[in-house]
Design brief:
The complex is a heterodimer of chains A (668) and B (813). Among the domains of chain A are: 36 residues, no CATH class; 207 residues, no CATH class. In chain A, 74% of the residues lie in helices and 0% in strands. Chain A has 34 helices and no strands. Chain A is elongated, with a radius of gyration of 33 Å. Among the domains of chain B are: 59 residues, no CATH class; 154 residues; 117 residues, no CATH class. Helix content of chain B is 60%, strand content 1%. A two-stranded antiparallel sheet of chain B has the order 1-4. In chain B, strands 2-3 form a two-stranded antiparallel ribbon. In chain B, a hairpin with a 5-residue loop joins strand 2 and strand 3. In chain B, helix 26 runs parallel beside helix 28. The chains are: A mainly alpha (668), B mainly alpha (813). Chains A and B meet through helix 1, helix 2, helix 6, helix 8 and helix 11 of A and helix 25, helix 27, helix 28, helix 30 and helix 31 of B. Chain B: GO terms for molecular function: chromatin binding. Chain B: Keywords: Coiled coil, Membrane, Nucleus, Transmembrane, Transmembrane helix. Chain B: Its main location: nucleus. Chain B: Belongs to the CBF/MAK21 family.
Chain lengths: 668, 813
């Protein structure tokens, strides 16, 4: 081998040196025993290692032909020997490039990338099927993990399966390319049934999957999530419980920073969590209960201690993201036996959070709380007092006086918690506040616009709006607020005149105005739709300027897939209606994109090709960190190289060396 | 031509070599000519033709010159960036930025150099001291520098400067010394106050020490001492007659001691009061005064102290803690009346009243405290005991509700008797006195309150536009106080008071204040049930309106005050008109939609209470047809209702709203309230109230307390998860995302691993090569070392370029 020959040459050089300049050699011996000794040791080692390998060299250096014969043997005859060989090859392929310290009993030497590819692709994509065939398990039929033990050949196959899974998991943790990882994960998914038999490997697999779920890009994240979900479903309650806990913790740690760019990703992650919590409601209730309790404790601490630090623990993205997550989870699984009882603590926490630090600077946060409360109320069909949270905001003097801070940039309330002091005084901020307050108020009232008690419900909000109209100096706000007033009161009052039931007849109350509700004829409902439309446009304008310019199409594609999935579930129509403008927006965007799909697929392909080309270069760049260890004086050694490579002169020294080594290799 | 003054060189900049010093000391005689200098002649020459320049004029002239020179300097100098070096603030407030001079002119004339040399030795001595001063008193050396400037004057100024320096250096020393001294004196005093009046005097003299720090030490320690040694009685200076009388030695001694003590104390108090006027000593002085007020309010000069302290209740600078200090002291004064028998209280209250009067109720920024202290007042209603009750019956403003006595009756009989006798014995003699005092206090308090109220009402009629929410800073506290002492208000004032409150309740004051006004009015009414026949209808109207704008969930206090209002206005008052009750029930139900759960619970509790109490109002729970909006059949029970058939939600007057004909639809919606308890209660009210009778009635206050979540927590508790999970081995996949996944993902199908392989191979090779490179490099280094060593060993043998060549070759390969 080349490496070995290098060393031999080196040894010879040393010998020569000894002959030519014995004094220097002596000097070396005196002053740097280590250097010489190290060399000699290494040489010896190498020699020792060399002997067996050189003997087996012809046998073990794999060729395509070898592999293909094995594959055929395995595929057609279910040959165990060939299977062992193949797995050995797979193993060494998975451990490839990890240096000599990995002592393997049967080591195959893979020299060609074609062979490597062949082994990897075949094993990953077909071995699971072959195993199942050997175990006489049909692909379609679902098999529980315990059933495996009953199958006769399982014992015989056991070591093979273990080797396969161990190697595959090993390589999974080594890989860096997203597409390869997602491919491997996807291929490992059918084997999850079997993974249950190996608890250690199962844990390793889950760990890797969680890692990729929370850090990987969208498609990979999605694959990883489906693996987690399958795993949890296959392995039963205990596994599900631990998965439910881990997934929440992972979610929280990845929701530390929210901005316009990370928001869709966090929403995607949240959707995944919601999905997992739907597997077993009893388990979810337990987990959700403890985690919501944690949030409540943090809030209580802030309420009692009242220090800046304790406030900060509540008024941060992590807290808000978890709240939003739980609102999503609870709204997704409503109903008596489901998570409905958790709506009460959540609503109370949200109310407490919104009231914790009542300053105008935290209005975005307050608004988020209001949105969540509205969503929760709509999903659980309970009455939650959102109006005071909103009307209190209109009472701030910042909302009544004309702004002094100039026009200002528009603020996206979904991606900030707090605004700067000067921003509070800008017109854009004021406008956004009043607009969203009115929207959310309309949203809140609309939820009950077919209720018998609507006129009474609207009494106070309308009184306060009237006061706001009187006090504000801004004409536009006056107009907006006035539009909201008294739209629906007449409608319900008139309808109410005809009924004969009393407040205690709950069934009759529930069926009040049912027909109108289904038809959506209430004036407030219609007005609210207009408002929603307007809000959507406003937000779209904001998002388009900030977000779309940066985001690749794939993420939206996947994200919308997710939300479509959520929508498909039976009892979630209502949720989908209120499920945040963002998601709807993405759907819309997605449809638009579908139309343009042709062009985009093309660009995607191009990107992929580019990525492939970049493959080698990426490797170079990854190495750079290690290369930094070398100091400047390398350049003297590199002098000779420089003439070889013109390009290299502009690039860092380490790259040069790299290049030259590659060239060297190619020439060989 | 006038010779220029030598450029001002900073002392630190002049470097004096040992040689120079030696030269000067050796040849002192050389400098002798200086003494013989004809200063007049020089001056004459310098000033040219103006012989009348002398003395001050001369100095002025030089100053002028210096100014010109400075201006020139200014041009030459670079102004240091203000960011880099902070400017120096001169005593007159101007800022001076440091400058770096571009180049320094070298003194040109021989004579001046000589002169310089003479000064230098002395100057070097100063240097060390100078530096230490600079750290603290930046301005002083500068001023000194200006003085030292002219040659002629220097010798004269030296001692003065030196003195100043010494003084400063010794300050630290002195402080330590003084501290010790103060400590010694104090211990002496405390151990035997009668014998050590001398040390007391000395301590007081230290109080007027020049050094502020020492002064403060002395003040504080004196405060502690006086708190200990002052007697528990007021010292009365002996009359002349008494002086004439012959007394025993002991009496004389005591008298002398008391006289000295009083004198010393007077001096001390005066120092304190003086100190409170100066900016530097204010805090300490105030602290001492407050400490004295707390501990020895009964003693002489207490009124002086009070007079000094009261203005601090309204300190204009909220950053300082004067307000808190002062108010705390006064509160404790009010609470511990036993110490001074109430005299100090009267004094203080009257002073505050005067203060408020003087400042025209416009007490500035931190007004809360001014009247907040009144809330600490307690009026012991026990003073007038039963015997005297008969004597002072009619005019008494006190209610004779004696809680303490009640408690005692339940206690042990004997103990009670003893205690009673004891108290009678101890309080009987000055009960009258105390009553008088309390009357005075009360009148002062109410005088203040009424003044504030009056002020609050007056501008709202005069200048409408200017009265914003905070225009009456004292109003909130004032109303609070009125609430607290409402039972003590004289009947004579009640009429006026109610009128004022009414005005306030309808006015532009904040919602909370309006609520407080209403509550105060009802409280007052309740306290004087028999005496008053005023209709509070207007207050009902106001309260009905206030409910619309209230937001009681902000904090615990507002929650409680709301509950209290409900209690006072709707629970405890007399029989209501049915129409009004129905209107309030309706409004409260509507309001509870938008309250937090605890306040909503309070509202619902009241609704239940009212519905239970007024059976007719239960009509609200039944729909008689028309959904509460249609015409109501004239019932035989309420013939007077015929003209009030239709319910108006927005009618401001509860009596006219026609609520009795409406239906309590709110309960239908409240049943789906997120809080399970609220939902439960509303369901209860809607469904079962008519049939069942509730014996246990919760008050709104209890409800608020029971369900308040202002401090976190959940009330009621959240439904716990089941303790045991049903374990399942696996779950059936329901509409797994797998189908979606496959359809999405399989499009990109098999991945090429070749790139990965190449990458791995490259990495391995790279590592191997790098290892080799390191090896070669060490070889080269070793070779170089070997060579150099060889050279040093003087072997001189030249050859062996083999090493490096070899390595080069390897790399090229």
């Amino acid at each position: 081998k080349k490496f070995k020959s290098e060393i031999e040459k080196h040894k010879m050089d040393l010998e020569k040196l000894k002959g030519k300049d014995p004094e220097f050699y002596k000097f070396l011996e005196e002053h740097d025993q280590e250097l010489l000794g190290f060399k000699e040791d290494e040489e010896e080692e190498q020699d020792d290692a060399e002997k067996p390998t050189s003997r087996d060299k012809e046998e073990d250096s794999l060729t395509i032909a070898h592999v293909e014969t094995w594959i055929i043997a395995v595929k057609e005859k279910e040959n165990y020997a060939a299977l062992r060989k193949l797995l050995g090859a797979f193993r060494s392929a998975c451990h490839y490039g990890e240096g000599a310290e990995e002592e393997l009993s049967e080591r195959f030497v893979i020299n060609s990338s074609n062979v490597f590819n062949k082994v990897m692709v075949f094993i990953l994509s077909e071995l699971d099927g072959i195993f199942k065939k050997m175990l006489h398990i049909h692909q379609e039929k679902k098999v529980a993990t315990e059933d495996l033990k009953k199958i006769g050949r399982w014992k015989k196959l056991f070591p093979f399966v273990k080797s396969y899974l161990a190697s595959a998991l090993h390589v999974l943790n080594q890989m860096t390319d997203n597409r390869m990882i997602s491919f491997t994960l996807r291929r490992l998914r059918p084997s999850i049934v079997v993974l249950g038999e190996f608890p250690a490997l199962g844990r390793k697999f889950l760990k890797a999957a969680f890692h990729f779920w929370s850090t990987g890009e969208q498609s990979l994240s999605f694959v990883a999530f489906s693996c987690i979900r399958d795993m949890a479903m296959q392995l039963g309650t205990d596994c599900l419980e631990s998965c439910s806990k881990t997934i929440y913790k992972q979610f929280v740690s990845s929701a530390k920073f929210v901005s316009a760019t990370t928001l869709p990703r966090i929403q995607f992650l949240a959707n995944c969590v919601v999905e997992l919590y739907g597997v077993d409601i009893a388990v979810s209730y337990q987990c959700a209960f403890t985690f919501i309790k944690q949030l409540a404790i943090i809030l209580r601490n802030a309420l009692t201690v009242k220090s800046k630090d304790s406030f900060k623990k509540v008024y941060c993205w992590q807290y808000m993201a978890s709240l939003e997550l739980w609102v999503k989870v609870v709204s997704a699984y409503t109903g008596k036996d489901n998570l409905q009882p958790l709506a009460y603590p959540l609503a109370q926490i949200l109310g407490g959070v919104s009231r914790l630090v009542p300053t105008a600077r935290y209005f975005p946060l307050r608004m988020q709380c209001a949105v969540m409360l509205n969503r929760l109320a709509a999903a659980t069909n309970t009455f939650i007092p959102v109006a005071p949270v909103l009307l209190d905001m209109l009472d701030f003097k910042e909302m009544k006086k004309p702004p002094t801070g100039g026009a200002g940039d528009s603020v996206d309330f979904h991606v900030v918690i707090k605004v700067g002091k000067p921003v509070v005084k800008t017109r854009a901020f004021q406008e956004e506040c009043v607009n969203t307050v009115l929207e959310q108020l309309a949203e809140h009232l609309t939820q009950w616009c077919y209720s018998v008690a609507f006129p009474e419900l609207a009494l106070i909000p309308l009184a306060q709006l009237r006061r706001f109209v009187k006090e504000t100096n801004v004409d536009r706000f006056r107009r907006l607020a006035r539009q909201l007033i008294e739209r629906n009161v007449e409608f319900v009052t008139k309808k109410r005149e005809g009924v004969s039931f009393s407040p205690k007849d709950s069934e009759a109350v529930a069926s009040f105005l049912k027909a109108e509700r289904e038809a959506g004829t209430s004036p407030l409902f219609q007005y609210c739709n207009v408002l929603r439309e307007r809000a959507k446009e406003r937000r779209q304008a904001l998002v388009e300027t900030r977000l779309f310019s940066r985001f690749s199409s794939t993420s939206f594609y996947l994200l919308s897939c997710c939300s479509v999935e959520v929508k498909q579930k039976p009892d979630e129509d209502e949720l989908a209606r209120d499920d945040g403008k963002a998601k709807e927006l993405f759907n819309k965007k997605w449809h638009q994109q579908k139309k343009r799909a042709g062009t985009e697929i093309l660009t995607k392909k191009q990107q992929k090709e580019e990525e492939k080309e970049k493959g080698d270069q990426a490797g170079v760049e990854e190495d750079r960190v290690e290369d930094l260890l070398l100091s400047d004086d390398d350049e003297q050694d590199d002098e000779g190289v420089r003439s070889n490579d013109d390009e290299a002169t502009q690039k860092p020294a380490n790259k040069k060396r790299k290049r030259s080594s590659k060239q060297k290799q190619r020439t060989k | 031509p006038v010779p220029l003054l030598p450029p001002e060189i900073h002392d630190d900049d002049i470097e004096i070599s040992d040689g120079d010093v030696e030269f000067v000391t050796k040849n002192k005689g050389y400098a002798g000519f200086l003494s013989g200098l004809d200063t007049k002649g020089i001056t004459k020459q310098v000033l040219g033709l103006k012989p009348d320049w002398n003395g001050d004029n001369l100095e002025r002239f030089y100053e002028k010159k210096a100014k010109v020179a400075a201006n020139k300097d200014f041009d030459n100098a670079l102004t240091v960036d203000p960011v880099d070096a902070l400017p120096i603030k001169n005593p007159d407030g101007t800022l001076e930025y440091r400058r770096v001079e571009k180049a320094k002119a070298v003194p040109s004339t021989e004579k001046k150099q000589d002169a310089d040399k003479k000064e230098q030795p002395t100057k070097t001595k100063q240097k060390a001291q100078d530096k230490s001063i600079k750290a603290k008193k930046e301005s002083k050396p500068r001023a000194k520098g200006a003085e030292v400037e002219p040659d002629v004057k220097k010798p004269a100024l030296q001692p003065e400067v030196l003195e100043e320096l010494q003084e400063f250096v010794s300050v630290e020393e002195k402080r330590g010394h003084m501290k010790e001294k103060i400590a010694n004196l104090s211990t002496e005093l405390l151990s035997c106050p009668e014998d050590s009046t001398g040390s007391l005097k000395e301590l007081i003299s230290i109080c007027s020490d020049k050094d502020d720090t020492v002064k403060h030490f002395a003040m504080l320690s004196l405060m502690a001492i006086f708190r200990d040694i002052l007697p528990g009685y007021r010292i009365r200076p002996p009359t002349e007659k008494e002086l004439e009388m012959k007394v025993s030695k002991e009496v004389k001694q005591t008298r002398d001691y008391e006289a000295t003590l009083l004198k010393c104390y007077q001096g001390y108090v005066q120092t304190l009061i003086r100190g409170s006027y100066t900016a530097s000593g204010r805090h300490i002085a105030l602290k001492c005064m407050c400490g004295l007020l707390e501990a020895v309010p009964h003693f002489n000069f207490g009124d002086n102290l009070l007079r000094a302290v009261v203005p601090f209740l309204d300190a204009s600078d909220p950053a300082e803690r004067y307000v808190t200090l002062a108010s705390l002291a006064l509160c404790s004064l009010f609470k511990n009346e036993r110490k001074h028998g109430g005299e100090a209280t009267v004094e203080a209250v009257q002073l505050i009243a005067d203060y408020v009067k003087e400042s025209d109720c416009n007490v500035q920024p931190d007004p809360m405290f001014v009247l907040q202290v009144f809330l600490a007042l307690t009026f012991d209603e026990n003073i007038v005991n039963k015997n005297e009750k008969a004597l002072h019956k009619p005019k008494s403003k006190f209610k004779r509700e004696d809680k303490k006595e009640k408690r005692n009756t339940s206690a042990d009989d004997i103990r009670k008797e003893v205690a009673y006798d004891f108290r009678e014995a101890s309080t009987l003699p000055d009960a009258k006195e105390r009553r008088k005092l309390q009357t005075a206090t009360l009148s002062a308090v109410f005088e203040t309150y009424f003044r504030v109220l009056k002020a609050a009402v007056a501008p709202s009629t005069a200048t409408d536009s200017s009265s914003s929410l905070c225009s009456h800073p004292l109003l909130g506290t004032c109303l609070q106080g009125l609430l607290k002492f409402s039972h003590l208000i004289s009947v004579d004032f009640l009429g006026d008071l109610l009128a004022v409150l009414r005005k306030l309740a309808e006015g532009k004051s904040s919602v909370e204040e309006r609520l407080q006004c209403c509550v105060a009015a009802f409280r007052i009414m309740k306290a004087n049930l028999d005496a008053l026949t005023v209709d509070l209808k207007e207050f009902y109207v106001h309260f009905y309106d206030v409910l619309l704008h209230l937001y009681p969930d902000r904090n615990l206090d507002s929650e409680n005050s709301f509950a209290e209002a409900l209690q006072v206005i709707l629970c405890e008052s007399r029989h209501h008109d049915l129409q009004r009750v129905a209107a309030f029930v309706k409004r409260l139900a509507a309001v509870s939609f938008h309250f937090g759960s605890s306040t909503a619970m309070a509202a619902l509790v009241i609704i239940r209470h009212l519905l239970l109490r007024y059976k007719k109002c239960r009509n609200l729970l039944e729909n008689d047809g028309g959904g509460g909006n249609a015409m109501v059949r004239t019932s035989s029970f309420f013939p007077f209702l015929t003209d009030l058939q239709v319910f108006h939600l927005n009618e401001p007057d509860p009596d006219l709203s026609g609520a009795l004909s409406s239906v309590l639809w709110e309960l239908a919606l409240l049943q789906s309230h997120y809080n399970p308890e609220v939902a439960k209660l509303s369901q209860q009210i809607a469904g079962t109230l008519a049939s069942e009778n509730f014996s246990v009635v919760m008050s709104p206050k209890d409800a608020t307390a029971a369900y308040s979540t202002q401090q976190g927590g959940f009330r009621p508790a959240v439904k716990l998860p089941p303790s045991k999970l049903v374990k399942k081995s696996s779950y059936k996949s329901r509409q797994a995302p797998s189908s979606l996944l496959d359809s999405v993902e399989d499009s990109e199908n098999a991945v090429d691993f070749r790139g990965y392989f190449r990458l791995l191979r490259d990495i391995t090779e790279n590592q191997a090569l790098r290892k080799e490179l390191v090896k070669s490099k060490t070889m080269v280094e070793m070779y170089a070392r070997y060579k150099s060593e060889k050279r040093i060993a003087a072997a001189g043998k030249k050859s062996k370029t083999k090493g490096p060549r070899k390595i080069n070759k390897k790399i090229k390969a």
